[in-house]
Amino acid sequence: MSFLTIIEAFRDFDFEGHFNAVTDQDVRAALAKDRLTQKDFLALLSEQAAPHLETMASKARKLTLQHFGRTMGLYAPIYISDYCSNHCTYCGFNSTNRFNRRKLTLAEVETEARLLADTGIRHIILLTGEAPAKTPLTYLEASVTVMRKYFSSVSLEIFPMDEAEYGVLNKAGADSLTVYQETYDREVYKQVHLSGKKRDYDWRLLAPERGARAGFRSINIGALFGLGKICQEAFFSGIHARFLEHHYPNVEIGLSIPRMRKAEGAIDPRNILDDPGFVQFITAFRLFLPKVGISISTREAPEFRDKLVHLGITRLSAGCKTDVGGYAKETDTDTAQFQISDERSVDQVVAMIRQNGYQPVFKDWDRI
Amino acid sequence: MEAKDKLILGKREFSSRLLTGTGKFASNEVIAPMLEASGSEIITVALRRIDQGAGDDNILGHIPNQTTLLPNTSGARTAEEAVRIARIARQAGCGDFIKIEVITDMRYLMPDNQETLKATQILADEGFIVLPYIMPDLTLAYRLQDAGAAAVMPLGSPIGSNQGIRTRPIIELIIDGVEIPVIVDAGIGKPSQAAEAMEMGADAVLVNTAIATSEDPITAGAAFSMAVKAGRMAYKTEMGQESVEAQASSPLTGFLRG
Q1: Are strands A71-79 and A123-127 parallel, antiparallel or unpaired?
Q2: What's the whole-model pTM score?
Q3: N or C, which end of chain A has less CB nearby within 10 Å?
Q4: Could B48 and A357 be called an inter-chain contact, meaning their C-beta atoms sit closer than 8 Å?
């Protein structure tokens, strides 16, 4: 059974009706439990849970301390190519956006890796657009091999592949995989993915399962908030994570809840997830999924990220560049995938984490 | 009792029966004072987390020289990986001690007993002082003893759960059964639970999460130290043995004595 079966089972589910019917008692019952059901999770995502936010936050903080300790993982992305054959209306790299696209040579990949490693970062995410003709498997494999010289953990955030291709990159040294479904709503998915291979919803939805079978030890999923209806996106992200936990118990599952940021040549968000809603979702995720890692990127503002440290998150990115070759550039360009909100250096983020009473962790895994 | 009552692992003697860990602390700076306050002489560290290039942030730099390092194979999913990690730890100068952790369930971090036994057989033959972390299982404990394990480390309850000694009935059988030391690892969330393990006759306990995530790890370390000592003293003096026999009177059989 794949997660597709679960998604299909919710095809006619009346989310609006269900959310409207949630009572205060349902929320209280969910908050009293140690192991939450799907129904409890829905209650915590509903508007009725909003008045209980402080209780949710306090439970989330306690669970996070218990399972992850007073530590915060650090990571950063390296964009190696912005060639892309998809037209995703929300993304700055979309194929109709005209700008000088770049693909790093292996020597340039090495330069980026060295500069980023100098900041202390040991865990990275390698990113590309979807353009297999420009960035074929052999190129990705060679890039991973270069990255492994500098970093103890290399995560991939690239286009969905088949199991054998994932296997090649896993063998080359990539240990983790990130695939965001963007939106779990099939209709919205169709509307925002106008052309390209990414139009295939099912192929993308099942990529985490192919990755788990290919041997990745850690898999990160999530929706891009700003596309589909927010409560439904949060619900599907959560039950997707739980499905993966149950079916691939040897894999660490992670969640992100990226919110759409402005990007050159991209649409504005449709369904806004505001800050209180964001905190409600993070804490609901923690209560529903006590062992899942939650990462927050530099899409979020510095002062907001600082507060989130206490609310259930386990990883923060720091000192990030979201354009190709960004670490070697003197000045920022306007062709990044999205605008960064937290522009602090790694050292500044480390100082903030320490001030909050947490230990910044650069390395908690190595391929030994 | 105090002077001779040593914990023996391999051929090494230890006075303290409290083992500690390096994970989950708000700062590595707390580790040395925590060790001092707790009296712990053995501390476990995940080899995968050691970053030799991290300078002052290298965890090994925060562990005093007199403390015995117990590298662990955290992150290993097979016996083969655990063996590889152990060999690398020894080459890196971390000594001969190795705590075997083979975990294939990332949600509850349950040990894989079969792979753990395989790794123990190989590493004990190579001269390591092997401390395997296991799901309590008496048969397995015997096999680990036969394989040359220096101790067994059954879990009290899931790692980090603070639920205490939920596996008590099986751990009691292991304590009663094997000759090698039994170190209760995982799940001990309060000093009273550490004392309980020691009263049961465990040879030592390993406590990490409860100390590392407390508001004051140094005081928490001291509290666990006292609890472990108290539990050990209680065990050695055989105090408070519960009796299943009614002693004051015999309402059912008293008539026999006329």
Answers
A1: parallel
A2: 0.88
A3: N
A4: no
Residues B159-172 have pLDDT tens digits of 878 899 999 999 99
The CA distance from A216 to A214, in Å, is 6
| Beta strands at B183-185 and A87-88: parallel, antiparallel or unpaired | unpaired
Of A66, A245, A368, the CB nearest to B213: A66
Q: Tell me the nearest-neighbour CA distance from A45 into chain B, angstroms.
A: 23
* B99 counts as catalytic: yes
Cα dist. B170→B135, B235, B244 in Å? 10, 18, 20
Q: Which of B4, B11, B24, B99 is catalytic?
A: B99
Contacts of A156-159 with C-beta under 8 Å, sequence gap 24+, read A156/A125, A156/A126, A157/A77, A157/A125, A157/A126, A157/A127, A158/A126, A158/A127, A158/A128, A158/A130, A159/A128, A159/A129, A159/A130, A159/A132, A159/A197, A159/A198
Residues of B in contact with A368 (CB under 8 A): 47-48, 75, 81, 84-85, 88
In the DSSP assignment, the letter for residue A268 is P
3-state secondary structure of A275: helix
Task: Spell out which chain B residues touch chain A, with contact meaning CB-CB distance below 8 angstroms.
Answer: 23-28, 46-51, 54, 57, 75, 77, 81, 84-85, 88, 104-108, 160-162, 209, 212-213
CATH of the domain spanning B7-244: 3.20.20.70
- Residue contact A252–B28, C-beta within 8 A: no
Cβ distance of A65 and B105 shorter than 8 Å: no
Q: Are B111 and B64 in contact (CB under 8 A)?
A: no
Q: Which residues 6+ apart lie within 8 Å of B55 measured at CB? A: none
**Residue-level length of chain B:** 258
Please list every residue in chain A whose beta carbon sits closer than 8 Å to the beta carbon of residue B213. Answer: 65-66, 69-70
Instruction: Report which of A127, A123, A86 is spatially closest to residue A103, judged by C-alpha positions.
Output: A127
**Interface contacts (A, B; CB < 8 Å):** 79
Helix (H) or strand (E) holding B134: strand B129-134
**Which of B49, B70, B91 lies closest to B133, judged by CA?**
B70
What dotted CATH number matches A3-361? 3.20.20.70
* Percentage with pLDDT > 90 across chain A: 80
Complex prediction ipTM: 0.80
Across all residues in chain A, what is the average pLDDT? 93
A364:B161 CB<8 A: no
Q: Inspect the interface and report whether the beta carbons of A366 and B209 lie closer than 8 Å.
A: no
Q: Is the dihedral of CA A73, A79, A84, A89 positive or negative?
A: positive
Angle CA(A3)–CA(A8)–CA(A14) in degrees, nearest 5? Answer: 125
pLDDT of B1 higher than 70: no
Neighbours of B24 (CB within 10 A): 22
Q: Say if CB B202 and CB B184 are below 8 A apart.
A: yes
Q: Which residues of A touch B50 (CB under 8 A)?
A: 363
Q: Could you state, in order of their start, the residue ranges of all structural domains in chain A? A: 3-361
